[in-house]
Amino acid sequence: LDVGGNVAIRAAAQLQLFNTDNSSGASIQADGATSPAEMTFNTDGSEAMRINGQRRVLIGLTSQVLDTSPTKLQIGASTGVGVILYRDDTSVNTNNNIGLLRYYSNAGGVKSEHARIQVEADDTSGATSAPGRITFLTTPTNSTSPVERLRIDNEGRIAVRGGDGGGTIPSAALLSVGGLSTASSSTGRAI
Fold this sequence. Notes:
6-stranded mixed β-sheet; mainly beta; single chain
């Protein structure tokens, strides 16, 4: 412990941080004595999260589900797992971003986006109405910008775009699956 309040442990040892008045409270444990080293985070006396020696984050698990995959985040629960992406804004309007997943690589030493899944507001939202759409984008050959390929709108209509077309799929290209009616435009294709 130095005068700045920094703690350094330089041997293969175990470090535990916890409230000594309540052994069932929260704690952090870094175990350098095991190989590979692991770090665990505990709440209410039970393990809540672990970062294992393969740099995988395990939430609700004490051991990884798959050890041969590149999966860096693994989540488990006895009642099933849900993930929530939340926009904390009381004013959500048409085309506002709600959440997205982006997929990149470092091919050629340049971080480039290969694909994207995004959710946007399909109209103005309020306490009793939250219309949304989900779009899937992929990056064409000889490009670094993803293009919208598939859209499911707030009415359940589906649109698909092929080729290297740019921009977004026009609403005239949306397919109504329930009634199997289709519409198309010169800039998009519908199935």
